């Protein structure tokens, strides 16, 4: 594939690589992008996904929120793919310093990656909004009441540790991401359209000359990248590491 040999050379010459990834990394584990509006979606939901997974909608209509959330955003059977395993290998080599992800599925950690910054949180973590008791994903799903809403033992509503629309990203996570990217000698961006802000704005902090963009479709930042590879993020990383 065109560009892979250049990617290999840059990886060999780099010792401070950061990976920034989006939904395209997870779709190769058969996790669909929830923004995809298909026939099934149109039949089942009265509102666009951005409305349903907003903070205000969650507060006003938790039953409908969880119906969408459980159907469209939780995939407990999903397994890490070639991209996740290649990044783990790159980390083991001492070259990759951090994975910064917009995904909430926890697959990078499942593949063994250690330094993972989850910009939008994780479905694996859930908290009671009343007493702050922690629930893992399995426990959260088991706590659904007759209204299909997860309730704590204290009767409080359980909320996923996921950043909803209208909510701010975690300042500490963002600060660490800025630090990693600004100090990287190579930035690999994969499986993201780079249209979701403020996360996509992190790219502006990269100061090096080895910005690699791997995506199946064109992005707004293609002209800023030093290398653009059109193709499967999993296959490209598998063939490069």
Automatic annotation (TrEMBL):
Its EC number is 2.3.1.286. GO terms for molecular function: histone deacetylase activity, NAD-dependent; NAD+ binding; zinc ion binding. Nicotinamide binds at residues 34, 104-105. It comes from the Bacteria. Gene3D superfamilies: SIR2/SIRT2 'Small Domain (3.30.1600.10), TPP-binding domain (3.40.50.1220). Zn(2+) binds at residues 128, 131, 152, 154. Binds 1 zinc ion per subunit. It is an enzyme of class 2 (transferase). Keywords: Cytoplasm, Metal-binding, NAD, Transferase, Zinc. GO terms for cellular component: cytoplasm. Its cofactor is Zn(2+). NAD(+) binds at residues 23, 27, 34-35, 102, 104-105, 120, 192-193, 215, 233. It is found in: Cytoplasm. The active site is at residue 120. Residues 1-241 form the Deacetylase sirtuin-type domain. Belongs to the sirtuin family. Class U subfamily. NAD-dependent protein deacetylase which modulates the activities of several enzymes which are inactive in their acetylated form. This is NAD-dependent protein deacetylase.
């Amino acid at each position: 594939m065109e560009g892979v040999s250049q990617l290999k050379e840059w990886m060999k010459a780099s010792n401070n690589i950061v990976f920034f990834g989006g939904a395209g990394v997870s779709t190769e584990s058969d996790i669909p992008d929830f923004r995809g509006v298909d026939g099934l979606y149109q039949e089942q939901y009265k509102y666009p996904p951005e409305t349903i997974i907003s903070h205000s909608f969650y507060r006003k209509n938790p039953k409908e929120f969880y119906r969408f959330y459980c159907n469209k955003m939780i995939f407990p059977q999903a397994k890490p793919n070639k991209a996740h395993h290649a990044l783990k290998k790159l980390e083991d080599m001492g070259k990759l310093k951090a994975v910064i992800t917009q995904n909430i599925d926890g697959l990078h950690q499942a593949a063994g990656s250690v330094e993972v910054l989850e910009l939008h949180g994780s479905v694996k973590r859930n908290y009671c909004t009343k007493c702050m008791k922690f629930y893992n994903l399995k426990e959260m799903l088991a706590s659904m009441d007759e209204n299909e809403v997860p309730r704590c033992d204290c009767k409080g509503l359980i909320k996923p540790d996921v950043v909803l629309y209208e909510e701010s990203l975690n300042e500490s996570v963002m600060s660490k991401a800025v630090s990693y990217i600004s100090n990287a000698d190579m930035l690999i961006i994969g499986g993201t359209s780079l249209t979701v802000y403020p996360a996509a704005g992190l790219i502006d902090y990269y100061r090096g000359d080895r910005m690699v963009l791997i995506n199946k479709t064109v992005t707004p930042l293609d002209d800023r990248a030093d290398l653009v590879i059109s193709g499967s993020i999993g296959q490209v990383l598998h063939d490069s590491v």
